[in-house]
Specification:
By secondary structure, the chain is an alpha/beta fold. It is built from 9 helices and 7 strands.
């Protein structure tokens, strides 16, 4: 199966991808995680991406599409979740072409619906264990006392606002794009994580 997790920053796309990886034999392709890893390792890709990410803007389409093309070569026979990709109409059309070339198609696009105020609460409270990548929230899923956590560079209030603005202007048009193809499924992303998981399973 091929799934797309579409939704604003902080909607819980990464959290739910982890559930499906652990429980349902999915592989997650998160363009955000790939880019953060590249920034951390100081690669060419990381150098190109950093300034966009730090200011909450999208990394240019051709860079992102190149990443996906490579990933699809290795993983095309697997159950895949695209987390945070596509984010522009151009990316969506490119994905359709790439999948078409290998005789695959998107099975479902899950739209995570959540109001902006809730996104701000979630992202300002998000903490990450840099050793394992486990995601916590200071209020909703606090880290154990002995785990040292960090905050993502783009989880500052000004950057969060910019990311939301970019989502509404550049990514939200995909809702229409996929609903016209009859593969869009909306879920209430404000529910607790296990409830959101059940909704996703009911789509599958
Ligand atoms: P990316 O890494 O994709 O970030 P994002 O879309 O902004 O989404 P987040 O990772 O912030 O949120 P999430 O939905 O995964 O939520 P999470 O599960 O962590 O992108 C980062 C940057 O990279 C972009 O700004 C851009 O520059 C670049 N980029 C990436 N992809 C790109 C592309 N395709 N094109 C161009 N540029 C690209 O949860 C958030 C918090 O809420 C956590 O603390 C969690 O514990 C908590 N939480 C989760 N679920 C629940 C729940 N149900 N109830 C209560 N709390 C919850
Ligand atoms: Zn994420």
């Amino acid at each position: 199966k091929i799934l797309i997790f579409l939704g604003p920053p902080g909607a819980g796309k990464g959290t739910q991808s982890q559930f499906l990886k652990d429980r349902d034999n999915f592989i997650q392709i998160s363009t955000g995680d790939i880019l953060r890893e590249a920034v951390k390792n100081g690669t060419e890709l990381g150098k190109k991406a950093k300034s966009y990410m730090d200011t909450g803007q999208l990394v240019p389409d051709e860079i992102i599409i190149g990443i996906i093309e490579e990933k699809l070569k290795e993983l095309s026979d697997k159950n895949i979740i695209f987390d945070g990709f596509p984010r522009t109409l151009n990316q969506a059309e490119s994905l359709d072409k790439l999948l078409n070339q290998i005789g695959k198609k998107i099975d479902a696009v899950i739209l995570f619906e959540i109001p902006d105020e809730e996104v701000i609460r979630r992202l300002s409270g998000r903490r990450i264990d840099p050793k394992t990548g486990t995601v916590y929230h200071i209020e909703f899923s606090p880290p154990p006392k002995d785990v040292e956590v960090i905050q993502r560079d783009d989880d500052k209030e000004e950057v969060i606002k910019k990311r939301l603005e970019v989502y509404h202007s550049q990514t939200a048009p995909l809702i229409d794009y996929y609903s016209k193809k009859n593969i869009l499924y909306k879920i209430d992303a404000t529910l607790p994580p296990e409830e959101v998981y059940k909704k996703i399973k009911s789509v599958l």
